[in-house]
Amino acid sequence: MKKLLLLILVISIHLFGHAQTGGTTVYNFLNLPVSARVAAMGNKLLAINDQDPSIVTMNPSLLNKNLHHGVAFNCVDYFTDAVFGHLNYIHHFNKAGTFNFAFQFISYGKFDGYDAFGYETGTFTAGDYALTVGYGKELVDSTLSMGMNVKWIFSAYESYFSTGLAADVSASYYNHKKNLCLTLLASNIGSQIVGFTDKYEKIPFDLQLGFSQRLKHAPFRYSITLHHLYTWDMDYFDPSNPFQETDATTGSLKKKTNFQQFTNNLFRHFIIGVEIIPIKYFSVHFAYNYNTRQEMKAYARKGFVGFSYGLSLRIYNINVQYARVHNNLASTPNYFTFSTIISKFSKK
Questions:
Q1: How does residue 80 score in pLDDT terms, banded at 50, 70 and 90?
Q2: What is the mean pLDDT of residues 293-297?
Q3: Residue 47 belongs to what domain range?
Q4: Confidence band for 239, pLDDT divided at 50, 70 and 90
Q5: Closest residue by Cα to residue 275 from 211, 213, 222
Q6: Pick from 58, 120, 186, 249: most CB atoms within 10 A?
Q7: Cα separation of 69 and 299, whole Å?
Q8: Per-residue 3-state assignment (H helix, E strand, C coil) for 104-156
Q9: What is the pLDDT of residue 323?
């Protein structure tokens, strides 16, 4: 076990060094939630240990032997002809541990191609893909667990091609008596191997901390996720904002006070979610992502930007999940996830 922890640490440090260099971010599809439940709870890390096969790709430290033969399929009608999907299968080996095999993709559809002079060159396709192998291991009396994903990423846009390698490393603490879970996740640690051009670009690294607890005497579970922990200042001052206040004396744009800047940056790191569980086989999910609302809102009309919601229903050991996410006024994709643990059918 010490060798395993040392291996994870060495790989993380090595890849993290590469993750800090580069220019613009590529492979942003890796940030898309691979589960309707994750989407409904704010699009980021979900630290909930309740044997859900659909969330372990984003949180490999939740992998354990109880998920043996678990499968999940997620599909999203994203934009016009764009389709996003995810498929994973979990297998437990008695001596080696629990593994997760996943495939994630987003297809942007067909496009008409033209050269520099406006002549047609035919149609072409574009897409992003990732093959993931995850590993999880329970440590101290099933209260502490660790996990790691290794991802092979490749993207093809017309004649342009890129491939990269990334890893996720996570550790979770679970208290059975209090039904609370705490997870620390470093996601997308890695870099491009082959770039679209001669310039290598960094991939969307993130450091997240998730916490959840189901209340003992009430049908609720609350979830708090902190993201982008490696950076504090996430604010952006837009001088083109037509609703920006101006100083009556100088005519210059008013900037936020130090207190306003502090609270704004603080709440940008938080995602608040809640699950309502009236009965064992049904739950409703709600979440609010303040950072998404601030970045994607329209000045004249904010709407429900930053909010997400969904529901989960279990039918004969098959979990059906649905979510709707308000990324902006023009983008409210619908997520559908189906998951089960096949071994439960054989037991019956």
A1: confident
A2: 85
A3: 2-110+124-235+270-277
A4: low
A5: 222
A6: 58
A7: 48
A8: EEEEEEEEEEECCCCCEEEEEEEEEEEEEEEEEEECHHHCEEEEEEEEEEEEE
A9: 96
The total of structural domains in the chain comes to 1
331 beta partners: 328
In a domain, residue 89? The reply is: yes
Q: Which amino acid is at 139?
A: L
Question: Which residues fall within 8 angstroms of residue 323, CB to CB, at 6 or more apart?
Answer: 36, 37, 39, 40, 285, 308, 309, 310, 334, 335, 337
> Tell me, what's the pLDDT at 347?
60
Which pair of structure tokens corresponds to residue 73?
A: 């399929």
Write down the mean pLDDT value for the chain: 86
Contacts of 346 (CB under 8 A, 6+ apart): none
256, part of any domain: no
Rounded Cα distance, 98 and 61, in Å: 10
Q: Is residue 173 part of a domain?
A: yes
Place of tokens 């095999």: 101
State phi, psi for 138 to the nearest 5 degrees.
Answer: -85, 140
Q: Quick check: 333 pLDDT over 60?
A: yes
In the DSSP assignment, the letter for residue 256 is: P
| Residue 64 covered by a domain | yes
